[in-house]
């Protein structure tokens, strides 16, 4: 195992141990900081957002940028729906399904056309944004939303960077596919829990 691969594994393990403690109200004043912490503290949000970056990294052309950008914009729209008092059905199931489906896309090295992948990613993002808004507490919508949008963009960038850290070789592609399988496995557990 190379040192870089061990570092990636160690960072992934530490990230997965963060748990959901910070993803729920009462842990910090509702503000930009708590908005920023929300996607980082819940394993469901963290894995889905990393997966968007991992998936986007292996897509052709403009999809590499459009998928993460579309996710962030749709996530903000989902928070806006929540702010308007419009409910989405089965938000937690939608979030869990996003972890499962995005993991499967990575595991199977899928290359959907942008006309299919962008609406799929955006639909999942609506659920994430709606959930973020539900956890907002008494924070201002602008500060809190800016926090979770920037954290999400950072997680997408981490996924893109992580995917690029693996060589474009049989072994590197296999490692990414196995990682996608692991993400999908967590999605199955979340849906069953």
Which stretches of 5+ consecutive residues score pLDDT under 50?
A: 5-28
Shape: globular
Q: Helix count, per DSSP?
A: 8
What is the H/E string?
Answer: HHHHHHHH
**How far apart, in Å, are the first and last alpha carbons?**
34 Å
Major pleated sheet: none
Radius of gyration from the CA trace? 16 Å
Strand content: under 5%
How many runs of DSSP E, i.e. beta strands? 0
Please tell me the total number of domains. 1
Task: Tell me roughly what share of residues is in helical segments.
Answer: over 70%
Protein name: HupE/UreJ protein
InterPro entries: HupE_UreJ
Transmembrane segments: 39-58, 65-88, 100-127, 139-162, 174-192
Signal peptide: 1-23
Which terms summarize this structure?
single chain, 193 residues, mainly alpha, globular, transmembrane helix, transmembrane, signal, HupE/UreJ protein, HupE_UreJ
Q: Brief overview, please?
A:
This protein has 193 residues and is an all-alpha fold. It has one domain. Helices cover 76% and strands 0% of the residues.
What does it look like?
With 193 residues, the chain is mostly helical. The protein has one domain. 76% of the residues lie in helices and 0% in strands. It has eight helices and no strands. Helix 3 packs antiparallel against helix 4, helix 4 packs parallel to helix 6 and helix 5 packs antiparallel against helix 8. The longest helix is centred in the last third of the chain and has 25 residues. It is globular, with a radius of gyration of 16 Å. It starts with a helix and ends with a helix. About 12% of the residues have low confidence. Keywords: Membrane, Signal, Transmembrane, Transmembrane helix. InterPro entries: HupE_UreJ (IPR007038).
């Amino acid at each position: 195992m190379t040192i870089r691969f061990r570092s990636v594994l160690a960072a992934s393990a530490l990230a997965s141990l963060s748990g959901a403690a910070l993803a729920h109200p009462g842990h910090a004043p509702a503000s930009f900081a708590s908005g920023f912490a929300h996607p980082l503290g819940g394993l469901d949000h963290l894995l889905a957002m990393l997966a968007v970056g991992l998936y986007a990294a292996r897509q052709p052309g403009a999809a590499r940028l459009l998928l993460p950008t579309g996710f962030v914009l749709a996530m903000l729209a989902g928070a806006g729906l929540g702010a308007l008092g419009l409910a989405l059905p089965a938000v937690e199931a939608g979030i869990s399904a996003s972890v499962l489906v995005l993991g499967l896309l990575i595991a199977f090295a899928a290359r959907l056309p942008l006309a299919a992948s962008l609406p799929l990613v955006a639909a999942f993002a609506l659920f994430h944004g709606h959930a973020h808004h539900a956890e907002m507490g008494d924070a201002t919508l602008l500060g809190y939303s800016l926090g979770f949008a920037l954290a999400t963009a950072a997680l997408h960038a981490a996924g893109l960077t992580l995917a690029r850290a693996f060589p474009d070789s049989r072994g590197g592609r296999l490692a990414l596919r196995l990682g996608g399988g692991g993400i999908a496995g967590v999605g199955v557990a979340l849906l069953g829990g």
